[in-house]
Amino acid sequence: MGLKVKKKNKVALIFGVTGQDGSYLVEFLLKKNYTVYGIKRRSSSANTQRIDHIFDSIDFKNNNFFIEYGDVTDSSSIFNVINNIKPDEIYNLSAQSHVRVSFDIPEYTANSTALGALRILEAIKSLKLYKTKFYQASSSEMFGKQKTNKSQNENTKFHPMSIYGVSKVFAHNTTILYREAYGIFACNGILFNHESPRRGPNFVTKKIAQGLVRIKLKKQKVLRLGNLYAIRDWGHAKDYVESMWKIMQFKKPDDWVIATNYEISVKKFINLCAKKLKIDLVWKNKGIKEVGVDKSTNQIIIKIDKKYFRPGEVDYLKGNYTKARKQLNWKPKYNINSLIDEMIKSELDFHE
Ligand code: NAP
Ligand code: F7E
Predict the structure, then answer these.
(1) Closest listed residue to residue 96, CA positions, set 54, 53, 139
(2) Rounded to an integer, what distance in angstroms lies between the CA atom of residue 153 and that of residue 259?
């Protein structure tokens, strides 16, 4: 590949750099004077929108952000890039990360989300890069079906309810195995849902913020959603990438829950967004016939569409991040209100 690697700063390699978290993590690490390499996969249309602004602001004389092609389903690309860069820290944020979609493309999800982590760890092991630290993007989706509505922590049993969740459990346990069997500094951040204006448009918070703003501006008539009664603990991606870095700086490799410890339903999230947009939303009917009506116009603006329901659902997620607070000195700066404010503002700005 012929990469020229600058070694004076700490070097980080990010798989999944073009995603929501990848883009915030690059910004965070560049501020900490890291040299950052990101891996993007080949796509037929542009997939770098979330990081283009970083390149635009780069002073090319002191450039310390580089992008290489690679794919976590391709062992040789992983091996070559790690061998060329020999990074101090590897963040594996790559995944087929959509839970609903994982039921439609199960084999690809397992290949990228589960085996991707294994391939990176194998490369670290076979290259004998024992000084290279590894971060795995584990997920609260691993907790899945729980018997009671109690908050989840590092000791809560996993019971995944999707191929995505099953794949993340594989990657999580593989990370622990490579730590225990080979002594690699390999860590898991078990992150609960985290959102931002950069969230993908088919995740529920972005879909709601985008849809309600468009409805408010009369650019869309109806927003179609699935299960309104799932409960999630939603944080901000900016806070959560800081926790990734803190996890990698801790004196020993370990596993950590990162969350806000505050939970609301999808329906409450809609109500909060509607209130901020001054949409007078009332709910009518039950089940699949439930609708959200704009009282001022008497128009139905929210409908339920069963195509958005999942064969297996996770009803309740609320994270207990006491360990991260005490040992990493990490806590979220955003709360649900400031998160929604930022997401709504960004949607409104987009239409200005
Ligand atoms: P995201 O926006 O979907 O980003 C996923 C990244 O993985 C993208 O850069 C994507 O590339 C890349 N990717 C997908 N398949 C790949 C492949 N075969 N080879 C190389 N790269 C590939 O996800 P996110 O919200 O930033 O989340 C980051 C990580 O944290 C993911 O692993 C996710 O599963 C996990 N996680 C997320 C949350 C959350 O609430 N956001 C919570 C817990 C864990 P393209 O841009 O080309 O698609
Ligand atoms: O769904 C319900 C849906 O797709 C949240 C990923 O980042 O967090 C994320 O996974 C809830 C679910 O996120 C729609 O049924 C209703 O109960 O935004 P979501 P998720 O499935 O929780 C975890 C931690 C990850 O690791 C994942 O990578 O909202 N819901 N109506 C809907 N969800 C979607 N997407 N679309 C709807 O129309």
Answers:
(1) 139
(2) 10
- Ligand 2 centroid distance, CA of 205 (Å): 8
Ordered structural domains, the chain, with CATH? 11-198+234-262+315-334 (3.40.50.720)
Q: Tell me which DSSP letter residue 152 carries.
A: B
Q: What is the pLDDT along the chain (352 residues), one digit of tens a residue?
A: 455 555 579 999 999 999 999 999 999 999 999 999 999 999 999 999 999 999 888 776 668 999 999 999 999 999 999 999 999 999 999 999 999 999 999 999 999 999 999 999 999 999 999 999 999 999 999 999 998 899 999 999 999 999 999 999 999 999 999 999 999 999 999 999 999 999 999 999 999 999 999 999 999 999 999 999 999 999 999 999 999 999 999 999 999 999 999 999 999 999 999 999 999 999 999 999 999 999 999 999 999 999 999 999 999 999 999 999 999 999 999 999 999 999 999 999 999 8
Q: Which amino acid is at 22?
A: G
Q: How far is 332 from 325, CA to CA, in rounded Å?
A: 9
Ligand 1 center to 17 CA (angstroms): 8
18 CA: nearest ligand 1 atom: 9
Enter the tokens of residue 253.
């490799």
